[in-house]
Amino acid sequence: MADFNFTPYDSSIFILTGIPGLEADHIWISIPFSTVYFMALLANFTVLFVVGKEKSLHKPMYLLLCMLALTDITTSTSFVPKALCIFWFNLKSITVKGCLTQMFFFHALSNVHSAILVTMAFDRYVAICNPLRYATILTNARIAKLVLVGLIRAVLFLLPLPLLLSSQPFCANRIISHTYCDHNAVAKMSCGDITVSRVYGLVIAFILSGLDVTLIGLSYALIIRAVLRISSKKANHKALNTCSAHICVILMAYPLGLFSSLTHRFGQGIPQHVHVILANITYLIPPMLNPIIYGVKTKELRDKVVKYICRIHSSHATDFKCT
Fold first, then answer.
1. What is the full DSSP assignment across 5-21?
2. Could you tell me which of 63, 161, 217, 322 has the fewest CB atoms within 10 Å of its CB?
3. Residue 29: CA atoms inside 13 Å, Cβ hemisphere, count?
């Protein structure tokens, strides 16, 4: 394995250690790490391909699913390739500008992902509480506008994070004990006063996440109220089943993300490698499982995916017979 050495005192770079304390095991850690990442890419690109090819799936729900797949791909790709370079080739250096850029895209894309989950909750609310008006309330154009608002929100509120840090002087020792440039980890490299940056990051994290969780909770409170008014048990089960995939995705995204964030900020007694592993799991496992959950729970999508798999299999079988 190639070994590239850089001095941590170079003023133009940071050094990402990978998983601190487990450097000797990086090559083994990279096996499940890369496997999960490539499975996530395959699953999400499959969703994009199938929905794109099937006109019967050109509906708001599947448009949102495609946007969720895109954010899963881009969020994981914002940090995994660099982490694999650390694990495989010991390429630990990253420029200060590159680090701040990675930090912005990682946090902004994560926030867009959260905004899409809110929009999906609204989609389920309209589908269950106002089914007759669903087609007029939630058009593809309106869904695109809602997601665009989420994107603008992410840029406006998260762009100050790298901007505030870019004006800070950084200490001589620029070793970041992480696989990617997390805001808190980069802020610790500063020798200046980072009170404004840390407070802003904490407040924005709680406000944006709190707002999204509140809106999702409100949507499901209204959904539950509507479902309880339905006398038919079969109709109750069908209504709740349409939300099951979204609920599973939410339960993976928010509790795990909140736990990781709180332990990183306040869990001083927890070993650093546990923080780093937990942070990576938070943004690596859900992108792999999200399309699988929707594929299993959504019959229409599942049938279309199976159709294409069978078509590919039959095509290969025909080619094999010809040879």
1. ---TT-TTEEEE-SSTT
2. 322
3. 22
- Token pair of 240 as six digits: 């709740």
Distance CA 301, CA 109 (A): 25
Give dist(CA 15, CA 33) in Å, integer: 20
List the one residue out of 91, 111, 126 whose CA is nearest residue 2.
91
What digits encode the pLDDT tens for the residues 71-85?
A: 999 999 999 999 999
Question: CA gyration radius for the chain?
Answer: 22
Q: What tens digit of pLDDT does each residue of 92-117 get?
A: 999 999 999 999 999 999 999 999 99
The number of residues in the chain equals 323
The two three-digit tokens of residue 260, written as one number: 């990781």
| Nearest by Cα to 127 from 212, 60, 216 | 60
Position 219, amino acid: S
HSE-CB of 47 using CA atoms within 13 angstroms = 29
In the DSSP assignment, the letter for residue 171 is P
Q: Find tokens 């998983």 and name the residue.
A: 19
Spacing of C-alpha 141 from chain mean position = 24
User: What contacts 102, CB < 8 A, 6 or more positions away?
Assistant: 78, 79, 82, 94, 180, 181
**What single-letter DSSP state applies at residue 190?**
B
